[in-house]
From TrEMBL, chain A:
Family designation: Belongs to the SNF2/RAD54 helicase family.
Annotated protein name in UniProt: DEKNAAC103580
Cited CDD domains: DEXDc_SHPRH-like, SF2_C_SNF
A single GO BP: DNA repair
Organism: Brettanomyces naardenensis
GO annotation, cellular component aspect: nucleus
From TrEMBL, chain B:
EC number(s) recorded for this UniProt protein: 2.3.2.23
Organism: Brettanomyces naardenensis
InterPro entries per the UniProt record, alphabetical: UBC (IPR000608), UBQ-conjugating_AS (IPR023313), UBQ-conjugating_enzyme/RWD (IPR016135)
Domain (UBC core): residue spans on this chain: 2-148
Pfam families listed in its UniProt record: UQ_con (PF00179)
Matches recorded under CDD domains: UBCc_UBE2N
Family, as annotated: Belongs to the ubiquitin-conjugating enzyme family.
Keyword Protein biosynthesis found: no
Name of the featured protein: E2 ubiquitin-conjugating enzyme
Length: 1097, 148
């Protein structure tokens, strides 16, 4: 910084753009015009561009003075109200002149005027209707840059600022030499002040008046300090006076600033940045009041209070649930921390609470909406500007008209109030530094928004109520390609039929139709069908359909099907599906045309703020739908942590108008919960392996531990990741059913691709051999056919019926569907005897065999005595009774016992197969039996991640005939089948009209989201998922609006197995709060750590 | 934990169909805890005595035996000073088919026929074997002293 200082210091400089003055102007004796022109030229040389009117007035008043230029300059600067005139015609000029003369010559007229003039230094004259306004005074230190003798004389001199030719941060102080009007540099502002003044003066944003304040006597040497007083005036050029910044203006300004720097990443050119910083520094130095800054401080203080733990946990669940599904978004950029997310949700939530909207009842609607749903409808109508449809004639209010103070602007209070002016404050754009005197508001330009009510609050119903309230565009549009009567609803495939059913359920107007556009061949006729008066009110389609149509269209470049029309309204269900803007699905969705756009999602922000961007992009919510804009204001600050508060309040202001989120825990203004759900009980039931399972499990576990340790030792864990996952999969399969390891069923593994077929098929011959050996051994220990026949005959003899016979363990009556008979012919309930076996086995000190050795005789060797007669009983020597009507032909083959009473006898016995079913199936069945006893027409849902496990259960349950109505819902079902299954499940009777327990077997993946299964109140989760949010989502299928009974959920966990470790991992995840998305590699490492914890003893 | 149906059924039966000479009443605040009295069997040294016992059903009941203890001081080779009882069906020979009723009957029977060969109170057992008359006299004395 030293060089410019000396470069300039020893020379007398003149303003670079000023014309050097050779002589004093001599207006006398010359023609008016030439004198005027010279005067004007000189004057503009000193004062810069000033308005023609000002020059005229100054010329008229001072042309005859001794030093016209000097006087005119002083007068111009001293009496800006008089001389700094804006060009707007003669009248103004005349008035000003009159005013001036009156104040000067006629005392009687000057009551208020001179005072006002002094105070209100507002009106300034330039050519383009400009003004300036005082904002304060700085005392600034300056360095003397030339030696001045008799410096005291400077105390009365006029000073002007003077910019360095190249460096905006260097400002000189020039003296105007009274005689000649020449300028002479005398000093330079200290850097701190120069940095503020320089850019502002250079950009013509600031006017300063410099008056000497302290100047030492006698001699000023180079480097000496003198002090000047700088009065600062903001110039009108800084102000963009547009009282609202709607998206378009915003974007234009943004593009403009972008254009300057030539970059597209949203960076401003350096000078604008400098100018903005200078302005903010100036306001800081002047201590201007800013109400918004004060609010900010208060808010920060308030925010320090305790976090809401419950919400935190909730959010974790939310974000986790999706982070699992979204493994395709590995970019680690713009992750947001949980706290930020929490704050955001909190604020969007609270703001929605503040909205006091009337409740609107939709027409043609069969259902009665809940109050908050009615609020939601009003809000949605308001977002669509359908004010007359809102109940109570919702009137368009300015402040609620979606206009929100633009948080990009900060308010400052003018330090001096001007009479007759209502502006008490002004606003500065924190982005480009421009100012504005009117409150800048963002007028949201999109019709639509995001309905982000928490899962289970009835987004579907609220949305349908909107469709029924406002089914068509009522403005007259004569576009043959405008489907003005149709709302397109895009849903995940699994929810298609559910939407249709909901539509039919709520519709009270047969004229309103719902058309499913899915896999059909109406692509060409769609336009014809939709663009007429009998168009269906709703077209339902899936993301997949749209994406495939879009892909085709990209190829053929023609507009067919959904792309051939513009819809009245588009609604995206589970809208977070498009959260990744680079996916085909997202692009396909963006390409759809519609007047109004809505997004329904329970999790608007999954884990990155970019997720939100995609939604806003779809909504077309300008200016934020411009990605670089979004990135600059939202993503980057959250990434870098810089300007976070601003970005946060900005984000809030973006979301406030367009997002409505209510949660179940929220309370209405009466303090009642929005949704009173019946209580929910989730119980973990720990089950024990039977011996066979245990042997196989231990063998597999030993093998897995070996493989793991081997790979760990050699550092090949990541490389052999997939084989380790396969081992884990095997263990999990055993926990469900031994037969699963014979299948290819991988369950809902998120690492599907990591599991290679070869590994699945190949090395498991070993374990299959083990299983076969065990089964052979089991076979060997079975009773012979003769033995079976003999005992059967004795049993039939002993028990013509079971009247009055009780199980000695539970002392209850024997139920033949549930009875087992020992070979000493004593009867027990299956469950009771099993408990006895389990207890005895676990309390006898067995010699523990080598788990890796399949031949070790760990199995079948516990000595258990009959509770009645104390003779030894064995599991493979038991008999099961079966009601005759359920007996299959197997029961009669070979071991049929012929006796006279067989016709009267109503039961049969068959050998009991202790390991035929898995421990989990046994447990499930005993629960189902109990449910059947208590409420024989109940609905039960059974979740598993393994569809082949569900297949096995289905087969087993069907053996019970009409007691259970078994239905299965998994990814293999087509659309029609899904719908049929769900419909059938809702009926409470079996196929033949007899009361039956309806059991719906659902694969966790296919049925975990979206479905509404409130008809059931009991559910079983057969196997744990790595992420328990997935399980909770599944539970929420039952526990949601519409559920009337208390919900009971039982989670089966095999004791001392991988499943228990999985529970621990779930727990740990919840504690840590895994809101972060990791990329593939990081995720694997993380999993390796988890796996390590699985194998540690 | 809710009370198993079996316990409820047993309790109901103990009250509706009591065993002669035996009472068993559950505590109202803990239905697994019973106050028991047993009449000393006729023609035994404990005749006319009324012995108090406590009986507790553990969580695993009926897979495991109830816990029973004499509260009244008794002179008996199979019952120690703390009231603990040495009886096979309370230990290894327990079977879930046994019930509170049967266990109490077994205890009553034990009073009729002490088994000094499998003692719990060694001194009493010695006395019983070596000086049977004196032992029975002591038992009667204690019964009169403590079990009235």
């Amino acid at each position: 910084m030293a060089s410019p200082f000396f470069d300039q210091s020893l020379e007398t400089t003149t303003e670079p753009n000023s014309v050097p003055l050779s002589q004093d102007p001599e207006p006398e004796g010359e023609s008016q015009s030439s004198g005027y022109l010279t005067f004007k030229k000189d004057l503009t040389g000193v004062l810069g561009e000033i308005s023609e009117s000002s020059v005229q007035i100054l010329y008229e008043d001072f042309q005859n003075a001794k030093d016209p230029l000097d006087k005119a300059t002083n007068a111009y600067l001293d009496n800006p109200d008089v001389y700094q005139v804006i060009d707007d015609g003669k009248g103004r000029r005349e008035k000003k002149r009159y005013f001036f003369t009156s104040s000067k010559r006629k005392k009687e007229d000057s009551k208020a005027a001179p005072l006002t003039v002094k105070k209100a230094k507002k009106e300034v004259s330039t050519d383009d209707n400009r003004w300036k306004r005082e904002i304060g005074t700085i005392d600034a230190d300056c360095w003397c840059t030339r030696s001045i003798f008799g410096s005291a004389s400077l105390r009365k001199a006029s000073f002007l600022p003077m910019m360095h030719a190249d460096n905006p941060n260097v400002v000189y102080v020039n003296e105007i030499i009274p005689k000649t009007g020449h300028r002479r540099e005398i000093g330079r502002f200290n850097e701190d002040v120069a940095k503020i003044l320089g850019p502002l003066i250079l950009s013509n944003s600031l006017d300063v008046r410099i008056t000497p304040c302290y100047i030492p006597d006698n001699v000023l040497h180079i480097g000496d300090t003198f002090i000047v007083q700088v009065d600062c005036y903001l110039k009108s050029s800084l102000f963009v006076d547009d009282n609202s910044t709607d998206g378009d203006d915003f974007l234009r300004a943004y593009k403009l600033s972008n254009g300057k720097s030539g970059s597209s990443d949203g960076a401003l050119d350096p000078f604008t940045v400098m100018k903005r910083a200078a302005l903010l520094d100036l306001f800081g130095t002047l201590r201007l009041d800013s109400p918004s800054l004060q609010r900010e401080k208060i808010r920060e203080a308030v925010d320090l209070d305790q976090p809401d733990e419950q919400l935190l946990a909730k959010l974790q669940a939310d974000s986790q649930s999706d982070s699992e599904n979204s493994s395709s978004t590995p970019s680690s950029s713009s992750n947001i921390t949980l706290n930020q997310l929490r704050d955001l949700y909190k604020s969007t939530q609270s703001s929605s609470l503040e909205i006091q909207l009337p409740e609107t009842d939709p027409p043609d609607f069969k259902l009665t909406l809940r109050p908050y749903q009615k609020h939601g409808l009003s809000w949605m109508l308001q977002r669509e500007n359908e004010y007359d449809l809102i109940e109570g004639g919702g009137t368009k209010k300015d402040e609620e008209d979606g206009s929100f103070v633009n948080p990009l602007w900060r308010e400052y209070v003018w330090p001096k109030q001007v009479k007759g002016s209502s502006d008490s404050s002004f606003f500065i754009n924190l982005y480009d530094g421009s100012c504005c005197s009117k409150r800048p508001v963002i007028r949201s330009t999109c019709s639509g928004g995001i309905l982000a009510d928490e899962m289970g609050l009835g987004k579907t119903i609220t949305t349908l109520s909107l469709v029924f309230s406002c089914p068509m565009d009522r403005s007259i549009v004569a576009d043959p390609r405008y489907a003005s009567r149709t709302t397109l609803i895009v849903v995940p495939m699994a929810l298609l039929s559910q939407w249709e059913r909901e539509f039919i359920r709520v519709s009270d107007n047969p004229g309103r139709r719902c058309y499913i556009y899915y896999g059909s061949d109406t692509k060409d006729s769609l336009q014809f069908m939709l663009c007429n008066t009998s168009a269906p009110a709703v077209v339902l389609t899936t993301y997949g359909t749209i994406q495939s149509e879009w892909s085709k269209q990209e190829v053929t470049n023609s507009c067919k099907g959904l792309y051939s029309v513009k819809f009245f309204r588009i609604i995206l269900d589970e809208g977070h599906i498009i959260r990744n803007r680079s996916t085909k699905t997202a692009k396909a969705i963006y390409a759809l045309k519609a007047s109004r756009r809505w997004i329904l999602t329970g999790t608007p922000i999954v884990n990155r703020l970019e997720d939100l961007y995609s939604l806003i992009r779809f909504l077309g919510f300008e200016p934020w739908s411009n990605h670089s804009f979004w990135k600059h204001f939202i993503t980057l600050p959250f990434d870098t942590g810089k300007d976070l508060a601003l970005a946060f309040s900005l984000l809030k202001s973006i979301l406030d108008p367009i997002l409505l989120r209510r949660t179940k825990n929220q309370r209405d203004h009466n303090g009642n919960l929005l949704v009173e759900l019946p209580p929910k009980e989730v119980v973990i039931e720990r089950l024990k392996f039977n011996e066979k399972e245990e042997v196989i499990y231990n063998w597999l576990k030993a093998r897995a531990v070996n493989t793991f340790n081997e790979n760990f030792r050699r550092g090949l864990l990541l490389k052999n990741y997939s084989s380790i996952l396969t081992h884990l999969l095997r263990l999990r399969q055993i926990c469900d059913h031994i037969d699963l390891i014979k299948t290819q069923d991988q369950g809902d593994t998120e690492d599907v691709h990591a599991l290679q077929r070869e590994i699945l098929n190949g090395s498991d011959e070993e374990v299959l051999t083990l299983v076969r050996n065990l089964e052979r051994k089991e076979e060997e220990e079975k009773m012979s056919i003769e033995e079976i026949k003999e005992i059967k005959a004795e049993i039939y003899d002993l028990y013509p019926n079971f009247d009055g016979i009780e199980c000695s363990i539970c002392t209850g009556a024997i139920d033949i569907r549930n009875c087992v008979i020992t070979d000493c012919k004593h009867c027990f309930c299956v469950g009771c005897l099993k408990e006895h076996f389990d207890f005895q086995e676990s309390h006898q000190d067995e010699p523990t065999g080598d788990p890796t050795n399949p031949d070790s005789s760990l199995m079948f060797n516990a000595k258990v005595l009959c509770p009645m007669c104390r003779s030894v009983i064995k599991k493979n020597r038991l008999f099961r009774t079966i009601p005759k009507q359920f007996a299959t032909c197997d029961d009669n083959l070979l071991t049929q016992v012929s006796d006279k009473k067989s016709i009267e006898r109503f039961y049969m016995v068959r050998p009991f197969d202790p390991y035929g079913k898995s421990s989990k199936i046994n447990a499930l069945f005993s629960h189902l039996q109990q449910i059947r006893e208590e409420s024989p027409d109940d609905h039960v849902i059974v979740f598993s991640q393994f569809t082949s496990f569900l297949d096995i259960i289905e087969k087993e349950l069907k053996k019970y005939g009409s007691d259970f109505k078994v239905l299965k819902f998994d990814g293999r079902l087509g659309l029609d089948q899904r719908q049929r299954v769900l419909e059938s499940f809702e009926k409470s009777t079996g196929n033949d009209g007899v009361k039956a327990i309806s059991v719906l077997l659902i694969s966790l993946k296919a049925g975990g989201v979206g479905l509404n299964l409130t008809v059931a109140s009991k559910a079983f989760l057969l196997d744990p998922h790595w992420n328990n949010a997935v399980e909770f989502q599944a539970i929420d299928r039952l526990h949601r609006v519409g559920q009337t009974k208390s919900v009971k959920v039982i989670r089966f966990i095999m004791q001392d197995s991988i499943e228990e470790r999985m529970l621990e991992i779930q727990k740990r995840k919840n504690q840590l709060g895994e809101a972060l998305t990791l990329n593939d590699d990081e995720r694997r490492k993380k999993r390796i750590e988890e796996i390590q914890s699985l194998f540690k003893e | 934990m809710s009370l198993p149906k079996r316990i409820i059924r047993e309790t109901e039966r103990l009250i509706s169909d009591p065993v002669p000479g035996i009472t068993a009443v559950p505590h109202s605040d803990n239905l697994r805890y019973f106050d028991v009295t047993i009449q000393g069997p006729e023609s035994s040294p404990y005749e006319n005595g009324k012995f108090k016992l406590e009986l507790f059903l553990p969580d695993e009941y009926p897979m495991v035996a109830p816990k029973v203890r004499f509260l009244t001081k008794i002179y008996h080779p199979n019952i120690d000073r703390l009231g603990r009882i040495c009886l096979d069906v309370l230990k290894n020979n327990w079977s879930p088919a046994l019930q509170i009723r049967t266990i109490l009957l077994s205890i009553q029977a034990l009073l009729s026929s002490p088994n000094p060969d499998d003692p719990l109170a060694n001194e009493v057992a010695e006395e019983w074997k070596n000086n049977n008359v004196h032992a029975i006299a002591t038992a009667k004395e204690w019964t009169e002293k403590y079990a009235n």
